[in-house]
Amino acid sequence: MTDLSTPADATAAAQTPPVTVVAIDGPAGSGKSSVSKEAARRLGFGYLDTGAAYRALAWHAVERGVDTSDSAAVLDATGDFDYAISLDPDHYWVRVGEADVTEAIREIRVTEAVSGVARVPAVRQSINAMFRAMVAGSGRPGVVVEGRDITTVVAPDAPVRILLTAAPEVRAARRSAEISGHDATAVADALRRRDTADSKVVDFLTAAEGVTVVDSTELDFEQTVDAVLGVIAEGGVR
Ligand SMILES: Nc1ncnc2c1ncn2[C@@H]1O[C@H](COP(=O)(O)OP(=O)(O)O)[C@@H](O)[C@H]1O
Ligand SMILES: Nc1ccn([C@@H]2O[C@H](COP(=O)(O)OP(=O)(O)O)[C@@H](O)[C@H]2O)c(=O)n1
After folding, report:
1. 7 found inside a domain
2. Structural domain span for residue 215
3. Domain-embedded: residue 12
4. What is the main EC category here (predicted)?
5. Which residues contact 98 (CB under 8 A, 6 or more apart)?
6. For a tag site, which of 39, 71, 98, 112 has the least CB within 10 Å?
7. Cα–Cα dist 224/238, whole Å
8. Is residue 163 assigned to a domain?
């Protein structure tokens, strides 16, 4: 994997004002991606979907026939993982090498493999270093970063940290509405299985100290965006 953790020009980096991070975590289907993207748009910030990196690595591993239950093999697959993502909330794309994988990383075969990739500690460390470098080099005044461990591991010192939740049945219904041709019960089961596997690695179901919970169970999309923007404003970020 390309090591982006050290700015190429340390002097330039020292002169650049720090990038404000808005950290948003939560379980699958809670609205992290859609709400974070809209909040970023309204703030003029960048948007970083961290789940896309784990999905892209899972895609890369699956394409190479790597057994994603084998940690050493997954770590090995990071060796030629040439990853890029857009931080522009109005122009979202994900690439691995020359391949545009924006759509492919949402396929079920990738979704089923992703938790196996994300549970490898050395993989997480190197991906987290990449996230921090992407934020620092974003060229934006701030970045809304969403995932599972942003409030706790990637950016625990962020001025705004939010846990976006919703009741499991509401999350399953939202995800199910997005995926046509699949049985709603099967979608709900898959979501639950993934949350169970993921929560063994990082706790994104309870808020860490100082993290504000936004529960979107009873809120529509606009109300959720407003609630998140309210927490951001309270945190002094404009
Ligand atoms: N508060 C909400 N009310 C209704 N639908 C929502 C709400 N928040 C998000 N959605 C929709 O639910 C689906 C899942 O949201 P998404 O942002 O992909 O969640 P996550 O990134 O947490 O998995 C999307 O289709 C999104 O438009
Ligand atoms: N910060 C993050 C983000 C995602 N992930 C992993 O990446 C997977 C995909 O994340 P995602 O945000 O795209 O998933 P959805 O909740 O949008 O379906 C998760 O199921 C986790 O296994 C993680 O481990 N840490």
Report:
1. no
2. 19-234
3. no
4. transferase
5. none
6. 98
7. 18
8. yes
Q: Looking up tokens 């965006």, which residue turns up?
A: 225
From its phi and psi, is residue 144 left (phi > 0), alpha (psi between -120 and 50) or beta?
beta
CB atoms under 10 Å from CB of 38, counted, come to 20
> Could you tell me the distance, in angstroms and rounded to a whole number, from the CA of residue 235 to the centre of ligand 2?
25
CA distance 149 to 189: 23
Tell me the C-alpha to C-alpha distance, in Å, between residue 133 and each of 91, 232, 234: 20, 22, 27
Binding residue positions = 26-34
Half-sphere exposure of 39 (CA within 13 A, CB side): 34
69 burial type by CB count under 10 A (0-12 exposed, 13-18 middle, 19+ buried): exposed
Instruction: Enumerate residues lining ligand 1, CB below 6 A.
Output: 26, 28-35, 174-175, 178, 216, 219-221, 224
76 belongs to a structural domain: yes
Domain count of the fold of the chain: 1
Which CATH number is 122's domain given? 3.40.50.300
Tens digit of pLDDT per residue, the chain (238 long)?
A: 544 444 455 555 556 679 999 999 999 999 999 999 999 999 999 999 999 999 999 999 999 999 999 999 999 999 999 999 999 999 999 999 999 999 999 999 999 999 999 999 999 999 999 999 999 999 999 999 999 999 999 999 999 999 999 999 999 999 988 877 778 888 899 999 999 999 999 999 999 999 999 999 999 999 999 999 999 999 999 8
Pocket test for ligand 2, best of 55, 103, 109, 164 (most atoms within 8 A of CB): 55
